[in-house]
Amino acid sequence: MMKSNHMVALALSTWSFISGVAYGADVAAGDMTDGQKAALHKTIETCGTCHGVNGRSVSPTFPNLAAQQASYIELQLKAFKDQTRADPDAQAYMWGMASPLSDATISALAGYFAAQPAAPGRGGSSALIAQGKHLFEEGVPARQIPPCASCHGAHAAGMATFPRLAGQHAPYLLKQMLVIQSALRTAPVMHGVIKDLTRDQMQALVAYLESI
Amino acid sequence: MTPTPCTWSCRTLLQWLGFALCAGITSPSWAVPSFARQTGMACAACHTVFPELTPFGREFKLNGYVLDNIKQVTGIDTSARQTLALNSLPPISLMAQISYTHTSTALPDSGLTGALAKDGDLAFPQQVSFFYAGKIADGLGAFVQLTYDGIGDHFGFDNTDIRYAHHWSFGGANDNGHDMIVGITLNNNPTVQDVWNTTPAWGFPYAASSSAPGSSTSAKVDNGAGGFGQSVGGLGVYVWLDDHFYAEISDYTSAIPGGAHPLDSTQANVVQGSAPYWRLAYERRWDRNSLSVGAFGLDANVHPGNGTALAGVTDKFRDTALDVQYQFIGEDHLATFLGTYISEHQTLNASALDGFAANTHNSLKTLKLAGEYYYQRRIGGTVGYFSTRGSADALLYAPATVTGSANNSPDTTGYVLEVNYLPWLNTKLQAQYIGYQKFNGQSTNYDGSGRNAGNNNTMYLLVWLNF
Question: How many whole angstroms from its chain centre is CA B288?
Fold first, then answer.
């Protein structure tokens, strides 16, 4: 089992990053009070209950946040807070969790989790992974489905507001594809991209993404 | 027909009703929308299906019920120490249970010898509870339940757990570091502070009839007629280490509501001094699974009371229990297995001396098994098995209509079949059937008055609302 909640000390060790960089625009590092530091520390612990304090979650219900794009985390936390991201798990878990977060705290959390080492890939069916790799890199030209790599990067590490997908839990990715396809989750670019993607193709893709 | 004076067996029946009432009070365990209001999270975050806790629900409780996402009323002193952190809206909620109970064969009339009670009992309500459940201050939270009992027609203090918790980390900034929660709990029911659904206060069945016959005894740490629930108060300290190891030691003494205070000979089952409770558990989580194994126990010296002085020799009860819980929480499919075994050694020097027990040494062993399945947290069911076996005792388990034992045995075994439908996460419609293979020692004519175990088979329909 991953020692997710063992990593509070790691959270503290990353403190200089949080306070000095991610928090920077709102509160300069030297200006943070002990109370602000303690509050942010508690917030990271709270996030870590599900996502792991090091951003690597145990249950695939909750996505890994380690090495996720900071801009993407910020965007999603704000979408949870203003309730514009409204898929079932967003409503069940994240609307409440994100509601009290200030913009400064959102920035700090995004910076913190983006700085954590990525979760390692986990192997699966080699045939499925190969099929998923082909889909990720080539898309399905005959159905006007572009390569995922064109936005998410050749190694699925993400780019700015396009999320990192590499090493993510396959069941989580599959669920997101389904809720985006059914418009339960709003994602304007993705709606057009995956509208014709079949469930089998999705399963191949997520098997590949979880493996890298 | 002319009412007859209350006979001995009639009094016994009334005693049984008292037992059943006690069981009804001590057995329920709830999930409360107060927590959802405080956290802004849906029930599914903390519960598979209420009241069973998910791993996140266990963390929430171990952390003192204090996770909050609503505006706070705060205060600080001149050294910037926080002096107040109060929810701007109180985390209160209401629970209502309306039930219908039908036993295979009607029970004897409580006032007329030879007559039968109405066959089928609507309890409207069976129970209504008010809760304050949530944060009191930073690190300090409470689960407080006040209950109106529709069968007993009275209002009283129910399950309560007030706790303070603090989160620590140590051991360096790497994977060898450790994470620890240390907490203090003040509660009125041994195991109400526990976070697994294998301990009695929160164990299956989560709801049952208050008017159907049930086992006439239970271990002190259990939630049946012989248990300590809501008649003791205790203070404990617990440690939760690395999301794996749980250890707790608590100490209880009698805190019996109502009756004579200070406690005297008119009360019953009064703890002499204090009764230590202990708990050890290990949990492992992987993927969508969690598995816990544990042990717990209670040692109590008890004055029988009931007209005898609270002095001299006592009865001694030593409870030791083992439990195991497995959970799978998928997107659509949820499954749980619960297993609990409780062994109680009784040294009944006081009861034997006072004429309440025939033996000075008895034992009582209880086994409970349950397997649950739910589809999308909407529809599901449970298959359960229960068994109570103990020493025969001519005075503790004397023959009596319905409640007694012709062969002086407490042995009761049976099964529970349950189907639940939840149109909403906070609303449960339940159909439960309890079948008895053996009741108080035998399957046929167990009470010496011609009643069979199967006559007590019970169909129980429940509407359970939390809001």
Answer: 27
> Residues A75-85: what's their mean pLDDT?
96
> Which residues fall within 8 angstroms of residue B205, CB to CB, at 6 or more apart?
B27, B370, B382, B384, B416, B418, B432
Axis-axis angle for helices A70-81, A103-114 (nearest 10):
140
Mean confidence (pLDDT) of chain A: 85
Tell me, what DSSP letter sits at residue B379?
E
DSSP H or E segment with residue A97: helix A95-98
Q: Domain ranges in chain B?
A: 8-307+448-466
pLDDT above 90 (res B27): no
- Of the pLDDT bands very low, low, confident and very high (cuts 50, 70, 90), residue A71 is very high
pLDDT at B171: 64
Q: How far apart are CA B240 and CA B248, in angstroms?
A: 9
* Residue B42 to chain A, least CA–CA distance (Å): 4
pLDDT of residue A6 exceeding 50: no
pLDDT at B8 > cutoff 50: no
> Is CATH 1.10.760.10 correct for A126-211?
yes
B56–A50 CB contact, under 8 Å: yes
Q: Quote the DSSP letter at residue B225.
A: T
Which region among A7-11, A73-77, B226-230, B326-330 has the lowest average model confidence (pLDDT)? A7-11
Crossing angle (nearest 10°) for helices A199-211 and A126-138 = 100
d(CA B41, CA B52): 16
Average pLDDT estimate for A159-171: 96
DSSP designation for B258? S
| Distance to chain A for B180, nearest Cα, Å | 8
Please enumerate residues of B whose Cβ is less than 8 A from a Cβ of A: 39-42, 44-45, 55-56, 59, 67, 69-70, 80, 167, 169-179, 242-244, 284-288, 329, 331
Q: pLDDT band at B22, cuts 50/70/90?
A: very low
**Interatomic CA distance for residues B432 and A127, integer angstroms:** 47
Assigned CATH topology for domain A4-114:
Cytochrome Bc1 Complex; Chain D, domain 2 (1.10.760)
Q: Is the peptide bond between B262 and the residue preceding it cis, with omega within 30 degrees of 0?
A: yes
- Please give, rounded to a whole number of angstroms, the shortest distance from the CA of A144 to a CA of chain B: 31
- Residues in chain A closer than 8 A to B177 (CB atoms): 3, 6-10
**In degrees rounded to 5, what are phi and psi of residue B173?**
-90, 60
Residue A128: helix, strand or coil by DSSP? helix
The pLDDT tens digits for B369-380 are 999 999 999 999
Q: B112 in helix, strand or coil?
A: coil
Among B57-71, B77-91, B381-395, name the one with the lowest average pLDDT: B77-91
Q: Do A3 and B242 touch (CB under 8 A)?
A: yes
Residue listed under structure tokens 């040294």: B347
The reply to whether the predicted model has a pTM over 0.90 is no
Other C-beta atoms lying within 10 Å of the C-beta of residue A97: 23
pLDDT averaged over every residue in chain B: 90
Mutate to test the interface with B, among A2, A57, A59, A122 (most CBs of B within 10 A): A59
Q: How far apart are CA B165 and CA B236, in angstroms?
A: 12
- Between the two ends of chain A, the Cα-to-Cα distance in Å is 19
